[in-house]
Amino acid sequence: QECRNMLFGTTCNPYHSGRTTGGSSGGEGALCAAFATPISLCSDIGGSTRMPAFFCGLFALNPTAGHTSLK
Q1: Vertex 16, ends 23 and 55: CA angle to 5°?
Q2: What whole-number distance in Å separates Cα of residue 43 and Cα of residue 40?
Q3: Residues near 47 by Cβ (< 8 Å), separated by ≥ 6?
């Protein structure tokens, strides 16, 4: 999996420029890993947030809908 678009090119892994960040949220994973943003809120269908986090050495949480308290 790669994180690439026509305008900005391929997003590089912040720890190894020869590796990808993976998935559709790879740019956000790279920003968090590089301490450019303290927290990220992303949608996750099929691991599109969890895999980039894993590739960048981070933890991502995908709580089950309706099981997380809003209080």
Answers
A1: 30
A2: 10
A3: 23
Q: Which residue has the higher pLDDT, 66 or 6?
A: 6
Distance of CA 12 to the CA centre of its chain: 12
Task: Tokens 């999996």: give the residue.
Answer: 1
pLDDT higher than 60, residue 10: yes
31 in helix, strand or coil? helix
12 pLDDT more than 60: yes
Domain ranges of the chain: 1-61
> Angle at the Cα of 51 (from 49 to 56), degrees rounded to 5?
100
Distance, in Å, from the CA atom of 20 to the CA atom of 24, rounded to the nearest integer, reads: 11
pLDDT tens string 23-62: 778 888 888 888 898 888 877 777 778 888 888 888 888 7
